[in-house]
Amino acid sequence: MKCDKRDLLLYAVTDRSWSEGTTLGAQVEEALRGGATFVQLREKKLTGEALRAEALEIQAVCRRYGVPFVINDDVALAKEIDADGVHVGQDDMEAGDVRAILGADKIIGVSAHNVEEALRAERHGADYLGVGAAFTTSSKPEAGHIDAATIRAICETVKIPVIAIGGIKEENLLQLRGNGLCGVAVISAIFAQKDIEAATRRLRALVEEMAGDQE
């Protein structure tokens, strides 16, 4: 599965912190019913068989909905279960090395915080970039937020799709319009909500409006 920029419109990043009383797989399905277009499994506290089991469950849900499914950082697990790809950060494996392991048909996303990192990721074969933090965020407090001018510069410099991540919610999503982004990645704006499906549907409408301005 290759990466189409429309797949990146509303990119859901998991966080099991809010899955009490249900399963992460059930929450992901709610998000997909609400209009999420891409799913990344990002569970820093899970390892080994527990992570593999979670990945297989969510992969099965995503396949039912025809939505791309990638794993954060864990290239070996992505290869083992034949996930659609991986997302790696600046401190992880280079995109070109990931490509050598996973093959030409897999999706590789890379986090970038400035134009230099963005260009390097593109040069090494990234399919898309996740840039941020767009706003301050509790999920990654160490990631300083980048301004609109930097986001715009990245989007204008690279040819691959760019999404914003970090602190994005309904109240601030439309502040990102006009920067050239093709979508947004969200965590708590989906998975911390009581009605995940309804919250996702509202976000989908907002991001359609934001991305429509970039056409």
TrEMBL record:
HAMAP family the UniProt entry points to: TMP_synthase
Domain of life according to the entry: Bacteria
InterPro entries (alphabetical): Aldolase_TIM (IPR013785), ThiamineP_synth_sf (IPR036206), ThiamineP_synth_TenI (IPR022998), TMP_synthase (IPR034291)
Major enzyme class: transferase
Catalysed conversion reaction: 2-[(2R,5Z)-2-carboxy-4-methylthiazol-5(2H)-ylidene]ethyl phosphate + 4-amino-2-methyl-5-(diphosphooxymethyl)pyrimidine + 2 H(+) = thiamine phosphate + CO2 + diphosphate; 4-methyl-5-(2-phosphooxyethyl)-thiazole + 4-amino-2-methyl-5-(diphosphooxymethyl)pyrimidine + H(+) = thiamine phosphate + diphosphate; 2-(2-carboxy-4-methylthiazol-5-yl)ethyl phosphate + 4-amino-2-methyl-5-(diphosphooxymethyl)pyrimidine + 2 H(+) = thiamine phosphate + CO2 + diphosphate
GO molecular function, one term: thiamine-phosphate diphosphorylase activity
NCBIfam families: thiE
Purpose of the protein: Condenses 4-methyl-5-(beta-hydroxyethyl)thiazole monophosphate (THZ-P) and 2-methyl-4-amino-5-hydroxymethyl pyrimidine pyrophosphate (HMP-PP) to form thiamine monophosphate (TMP).
Classification via Pfam families: TMP-TENI
Annotated positions binding Mg(2+): D73, D92
Lineage: Bacteria, Bacillati, Bacillota, Clostridia, Lachnospirales
EC number assigned by the record: 2.5.1.3
Family named by the database record: Belongs to the thiamine-phosphate synthase family.
Binding annotation for 2-[(2R,5Z)-2-carboxy-4-methylthiazol-5(2H)-ylidene]ethyl phosphate: T137, S138, S139, G167, I187, S188
Protein name: Thiamine-phosphate synthase
Cofactor binding, per record: Binds 1 Mg(2+) ion per subunit.
Cofactor: Mg(2+)
Segment forming the signal sequence: none
GO annotation terms (biological process): thiamine biosynthetic process; thiamine diphosphate biosynthetic process
Gene: thiE
Pathway annotation from the record: Cofactor biosynthesis; thiamine diphosphate biosynthesis; thiamine phosphate from 4-amino-2-methyl-5-diphosphomethylpyrimidine and 4-methyl-5-(2-phosphoethyl)-thiazole: step 1/1
Single GO cellular component term: cytoplasm
Alphabetized PANTHER family for the sequence: THIAMINE-PHOSPHATE PYROPHOSPHORYLASE (PTHR20857), THIAMINE-PHOSPHATE SYNTHASE (PTHR20857:SF15)
Keyword annotations of the record: Magnesium, Metal-binding, Thiamine biosynthesis, Transferase
